[in-house]
Structure formats: structure tokens, C-alpha cells
Amino acid sequence: MEALQVGLAGFGTVGTGVAKILLEEAAWLERRSGRQIRLKRIADLDLERDRGVSLEKVQTSTRVEDILEDPEIRVLIELMGGIEPAKSFVLDAIAAGKHVVTANKALLASHGTELFQAAEAKGVQIGFEAAVAGGIPIVRSLREGLAADRILSIAGIINGTANYILSTMTEQGREFPECLKEAQEKGYAEADPSLDIEGQDTAHKLAILIGLACGVSVHPEDIFTEGIQRVTGMDIRYARELGYRIKLLALSKILDGELEARVHPTMIPESHLLASVGHAFNAVYATGRGTGPVMFYGKGAGMMPTGSAVVSDLVSLARNMRPGMPHDIPALGFYGQFPQDARLRPMEELVTKYYMRFPVVDRPGVLSKISGILGDHGISIDSVIQKGRQQAGPVHIIMLTHEARERDVRHALDVIDRLEVALDKSLFIRIEDSFDPPGLEPA
Q1: Is 98 known to be catalytic?
Q2: CB neighbour class for 426 (10 Å; exposed up to 12, middle 13-18, buried from 19)
Q3: Same domain as 176, residue 76
Q4: Is the pTM of this model over 0.70?
């Protein structure tokens, strides 16, 4: 059978992993797919750097157009990242009748519907297993393995940089800036880490997961997103004392016909499986109406895990292109019209428990004043920690609340922050004791 010829645009870390697998595991991949998969061309602006991969049998170029204009190449592997020029190259590949495999979560989260529609109209496929959670096969699991179930909630640790920083802070008692610097030195964080630590990368991935799980479209800019920059070693220590761990979570729940979609630091019970997900590992915890909770865990980034996910899409394409084999299932796993925009629940309507920290003057009556303001806003206190001042500066009052509404919490803290006794802005972290929607009955 004729070989499936592919072109690779982007020869960075993941691109190198893809090339290594295609070149070194060719015989294994042929057994898996039923045909040879041949890496014919690589396009990248930097072709001089040694990646430790022999390219003797591969054509190289600085122009992606050389891949697009090659009639023998049936698949474009897009690993450039970013929106443009990646989007234009993907659309050009589709127009030329080429299939596309990509790890570009920002592109799919922002323009996925447009790309999927173009691919369907042209009769080609887009594979994107590597776009979320690296080597974890979460895309196929949601699209195929859980196709019979209604996914009611998703909780994910899907950014390795943020998880590495928070895990290191927890285990070693260090502060955020120091742990961020270490993550950069070890290659877990970019020189500009803002997409990771501010939560946007996680929001892009959550948008894709929601599309797969629920068949609706959520734009990343509509997902409430809050980063981890304000989490301190003090908050980590208090969380541990209270029996919690702090993680940057992607959260989605269906409640009363509305969809919650949010990304923020979250305190979760130390007994929960997600609390044990450390360092650069990822995990996705999904709850289905029929299956109940299931969790997927593994390496969420890196040359070989993500490269393996990319090549898995090539194997799937090669299988589907065999004579007599049916066309692949839709990109998001839903037939019919393309996903409509989800009806999102406003963040101010969120109801959950809260951890609050108030830096205040060490003065009698402060605790009662703060408690009174919270009570005036309908916020009930579950527990309080107030320790004596250890050095010059504020004392910190720590409170855990019962369930409260986000809008009321924000209004109350705005009043508290204007008090004369407040020495700095208060901090709050949302608490999730359970990720299962209320009223979920066992299958």
C-alpha cells in the first residue's frame, strides 16, 4: 500500500519528538496503522540547531508553502503555535485537500469551529489529541470512550508549569517568585510565563474539553480566568493545616441548564485524587451521568509525551484512509449542526465555599468587625484561625466560609478592604469539596 506522506511545520521541542517517533519507530507504526507513515518534509526557520535526530531521508525548508504545494503530502502537522500564521497555513492545507494534525490549543479554542467546518466541507480531518494534556488520551476518551454518557462536570489540572510551581511551594515551603525562577531554569516555564501562570493556557484547553464533552462552543475570553500569582507560601501552609491543597483548576459544571466554566486557584481536600497530582503531571477528572467519576492522569507536556499524542493522530488517519474503511467520526464527536455557543452561568452567581485571608492591624475588635460585615452580606463563617503576630507587620485572620455567592463575597471584601484596620488587600481562594454535581445518582 502507498505510504502516507506527511509534512511537519515547526521543529521545536514537540516537533523533534514527532520526528524521532516517525523515524525511529517506523516499523512499529506501520504494524499499528496498516501502512507506512513517511515524514517527507520539515519546515522551520531554524534548521541549523542539532536536535539529535538524523534527517538524511527528510527534505527540509524554511517555507511551510513547500509542504502545502507538495501534492504527495497528504497531512500537514502544524506545531508552530499561536494564531497566525498557523491559522492561514491550516486553512490553506485544508483547501488543498490535506488532513491536519495540530497541538495548537490557542488556535482550536479561538477558531476551532471555523477550522472544523472548513475541514468537513473539504472532506478532510483535523486531529488534535496533543492539544490538551500532552500524552493523556483525553480527546479520544471524551469523544469515543465516553460517547454514550452525558458529562456533567470536568475538573482538570492541565497546565504543568502552574502545577510544578504550586507543588514545589507546597513541598518545600518556598515562595512563588523563587519557584517560578526554578521552573524556568528547568524548562518547565517559558521566559515569558504569563500564559501559564495567569491561566490563559488552561482556559484554552478547557474550551476544547467543553466542546468535546458537551457539544457546545465556549470562547476562551468568556471563561472566568484567574492566575496563581497572588498565592503565597502562607496560603499554602494554611491550606495544609486545614486539610487542603491548592491547585490551578479548570472547572466546568452543568447546573440547571447553564454551564459553569472557570479557571482559578482552588483548594481541594488533600484526600482527593487530584490533590496528589504533582509537579508537571496533568489530570482530568470527569463525572458522567452513567459512569460516575473517572480520572485520567499522566505527563501533560514534553517532547515525547506530546509527540506521541501527535503521532497517534497520524496512526488514526492512516487507519481511516485504508480502502473500505469508514470516514472518521466528527472532530468534536457530534453529528449534525456545529456547536452553538453555550449558555454560561455568570461568575457572580457561583455558589461555593471560600478561604479568606485578611492582613489587618493587631487590635481588639477587628475580628468581630470583619465577621459583622460578612454576616451583613449573608456569608456564614465555618471556622477562623488567628495567630499572634510573629514579627513587625500585619496579623492575618484566616476564615473558611460555608457556601456563599460570589457576588456577595466580592461586595463584602470590598467593604472590608476599605476599613482603617486593613493593611493590605484581602485574598480569597475558592474551595471545591466535591466535583460531582448535586443530585447525581449512582448508575
Answers
A1: no
A2: buried
A3: no
A4: yes
